Every structure is written in C-alpha cells, then in structure tokens.
UniProtKB/TrEMBL annotation:
Residues 7-154 form the Calcineurin-like phosphoesterase domain. It comes from the Archaea. Keywords: Cell inner membrane, Cell membrane, Hydrolase, Manganese, Membrane, Metal-binding, Transmembrane, Transmembrane helix. The lineage of its organism: Archaea, Methanobacteriati, Methanobacteriota, Stenosarchaea group, Halobacteria. This is Phosphoesterase. Residues 421-446 are annotated as: Disordered. GO terms for cellular component: membrane. The chain crosses the membrane at residues 208-232, 260-283. GO terms for biological process: lipid A biosynthetic process.
C-alpha cells in the first residue's frame, strides 16, 4: 500500500475517427510528469473509463488497444515513464469493460507500467482507515454490466453508445465546425435533441436562413407582449395604441420593417396557439416513449441516479465499518458530500463539459457553453490530526475553448463557475476535530 493516492476517472480516450482526438492530452501528460517529482510513495488510480473502447466499432479485441497506442504514443510513453516512479492502477468502467474481458490487456498495459486490476472495486488503507473505490456503472440500470468480465454481455448503454456516440465520431468531420464528436460530453442524454437543434441553428443552417429568421426570433417575446396589448385594447381598454401601429409608422422604414415582423409573429403565434394542445399531448407521449427506451433521462431520474450512489455508499459503510469514504466516477459530475460522518466523492471527468445557457432575447435555441473542469483528488493521512484521512481537491487549469460563433457570444452571458468542493476535507478523525473542520469548509454539493 502507498502513502498517497491520486484519483481520476472518465478520461474516455479513443473511439472511431474524430473521437480519437484528446483535447486534454497535454494537460494529462503534464499531470503525469508532475507525479514523477512528488518524492512520495504514491499510487495513481484511474477508476474506470480510461479508454473509450465501446466507441470503437470497426475493430475488435486487442486491435482497439493497438489503435490507442498508435494515436497517442506520447501519452503511453508518459505512462511508461511515470509508472517507473509511482504505481499506476486501472480498473474497468463500462466504456472500457473489455479490460476485464480479455486477459491479454493485463500484459499489454504492463508494458507501459500500468497495472490492470480486473475488479469491480478496490479498497485502499490510508492512515489506519479504508477508502472504497469503484467506477459506479453497477449503480446505473442502463449501464450495469450483466456479467462482469464477459465482453459479449453488454448493457443497454453499450448499444446506444455504439449506434449514436460512435456514429457521431464518424460523421463529425463532415460538419462545418466538427462539433458532433462532443456528443459524448453531454449529460444527461435528454440534452442531446436540444444540443443538436442548437448546433444546427448556430453552425449548420444556411447563413441566409439563419439571419433571415433572426429578427423574427429575437422579437418573438416582444410580439407576445404586443399581442396581449392588442387583446386588452379590443376587449377592455378601448384605446388604439397597439392596434393602429401609428407609433411604428413614425419610425419610417425601420418602423415598417418592425411592423412586418410583429404582424408575422402574431400570425405565427395564433397558429401555434391553435395547434398547441394536440402538440402538447403528442410530444408528451413521444417523450415518455423515448424515456421508456432509455434514450432520454428525465430530470427526476438524474436526481434518483445521484441518490442511488448515496444509498450504495450507505450499504458499503454498513457492511464495512472501517471504510470512511466511498469514491466513484461514471456520472461526470464531480462532488464531495458528507453522509453519516463519512465522505461520498465523485471524481468527475476530463472530457469537455457543457453548460446549457439560454439566449438573452427572443425565442432562440440555447447555447451550450463549453468548458473544462480537469480535476483529481489527492488522498493521504491527515498530517495535523494524525488519525484522519485528508481529501485534497485539485484542478488543472485549461482555458475554455474559443469555439462559439460571434452570434452565440452576443446572445448569452458567460456562465459563472463556482467552486463548490472544498480544497481540503478531513474525515475519520476524532469527533471534535471532524466537527471543527466541517464547519470551516465551504458548502460541498454538486
């Protein structure tokens, strides 16, 4: 056992065509180099989904590993160099479940000083206490492996991924901005239709159509207010400010153009009102069907998914009283939570992240703001108390990619990022020390 552990997950390196691109490769290589100079008895644990083996559809078995090495030689050579100084351990996730299905992966990874533990979970002792480490796919009904170690026994998520995410990697290069490959970064899956609509409008649509529709979409909300004014004048007020358009005609050509836009929007609003009721029932039924097949995840299901990990942690803590922390990945949402005096930790992802950001004006598609939250947890015995386990949350700086169009940048406010995970959290120390440290920590939620 080491004295210090570094925990990361969900790198998702590899896949068909455009999915081979690894946007954080330089940062991860630098992170590995940094481990070589720590002068610690350390172990790096990648707790699942290091590779996107599900995303390879044109080759099978160990050929996927050969492609990984061919596409990312610098990364594997860095594994080899870092592994000579610190221990590196991988466990399978769902996207690289084949690591448990083919024994040859143990030897292939060992060539690069990476030890593959073909297990669903690991336990590590730290400062006389124990931490439980797993990927977390077994807590997810759509991605639970029906027979761990059998590469031919796959959950529903495998088939969705193979036919949607992998296809996105194959087709992404045909787009104007090579955006389709980022589908793997979207969580939950229900965001996919809105994300595709957004990218179609802002990137793929003919510029003529986009900018021809823009004034109607920008002024749609204004037109709704105007419609309310027309209705009130016709039924209650008895004025003609809205119905006469006289104030618009005083603006000359600009007023005529604005009047045209408003009238068109009023007609569209009227038509939408007529068909709104049947459309509501149609889309509600279609949504339920997609949810039944697991292709959409309702908001309440996301909350339930998070709750399932808290329940799993409580079961582990009950069966293993010596465990003070339950660590998992899989959901791509980094977090640290206190549960009954112990910790439940999610290690997040190194993939690009998207924040759904509504347009400031009109009836325009939302903009999915891209960013990175490259992070890891450093776990060691608490040097102050001498009895607890110290979790240190570290982030690796990476500037948000400049890939939004000018129109997208003009229509939104840049979303603010808020650090909600404390830089230092101690668990398992004396009750007095634990209470003091918890009070001094920042709120630790998702």
């Amino acid at each position: 056992m080491a004295d210090v552990y570094y925990l990361v997950s969900d790198l998702h390196i590899g896949g068909d065509e455009q999915l081979q691109e690894c946007e954080f490769k330089d940062e991860f290589i630098e992170f590995l180099r940094g481990l070589e100079s720590t002068d610690e008895d350390a172990e790096l644990i990648v707790l699942g989904d290091a590779f996107g083996l599900w995303e390879f559809t044109e080759v099978r078995g160990l050929e996927k590993f050969d492609l990984l090495v061919d596409h990312h030689p610098e990364l594997f050579e860095q594994f080899r160099a870092t592994g000579e100084v610190v221990d590196i351990t991988f466990i399978p996730g769902n996207h690289d479940a084949e690591l448990a299905g083919y024994a040859d992966y143990v030897d292939r990874l060992a060539e690069y000083n990476v030890e593959l533990e073909r297990e669903l979970y690991l336990v590590r002792d730290v400062g006389g206490r124990r931490i439980w480490i797993e990927h977390g796919m077994q807590r997810d009904a759509n991605n639970r492996l029906p027979e761990f170690g059998n590469p031919h026994a796959n959950p529903l998520g495998y088939f969705v991924n193979r036919h949607i995410t992998s296809k996105a990697g194959q087709l992404s290069g045909r787009g104007k901005y090579n955006w389709l490959k980022d589908m793997q970064s979207l969580t939950p899956l229900e965001e996919i239709p809105y994300w595709i609509l957004s990218n179609y409008y802002y990137r793929e649509m003919s510029p003529f159509l986009r900018y021809a529709a823009l004034p109607f979409l920008l002024l749609f909300n204004f037109s709704l207010v105007y419609l309310v004014g027309v209705v009130l004048e016709s039924t209650v007020l008895g004025t003609n400010f809205f119905t006469s358009f006289e104030w618009l005609r005083g603006l000359g050509f600009a007023g005529d153009l604005l009047e045209f836009v408003i009238v068109v929007n009023l007609v569209i609003t009227g038509l939408l009102t007529v068909i709104a009721v049947p459309l509501f029932f149609f889309f509600r039924d279609a949504k339920k069907t997609l949810e039944r097949f697991g292709l959409l995840v309702p908001d309440e299901a996301v909350t339930e998914q998070d709750a399932s990990y808290l329940d799993a942690a409580r079961e582990v803590f009950e069966d293993h009283p010596e465990a003070v922390a339950f660590v998992y990945g899989h959901t791509h949402r980094p977090s640290l939570k206190h549960v009954d005096g112990r910790l439940v930790v999610n290690t997040g992802t190194w993939l690009k992240r998207f924040t759904r950001t509504p347009a400031l004006l009109g009836l325009l598609p939302p903009v999915y703001y891209p960013s990175f939250q490259l992070n890891y947890f450093r776990v060691s015995a608490d040097p102050e108390s001498g009895a607890g386990v110290l979790f240190e949350y570290e982030t690796v700086e990476k500037t948000a990619p400049k890939e939004l169009t000018l129109l997208q940048r003009l229509l939104i406010r840049t979303p603010k990022t808020q650090q909600t995970i404390p830089a230092r959290t101690v668990v398992g120390s004396s009750a007095e020390s634990e209470s003091e440290r918890t009070r001094s920590s920042a709120p630790n939620t998702d």
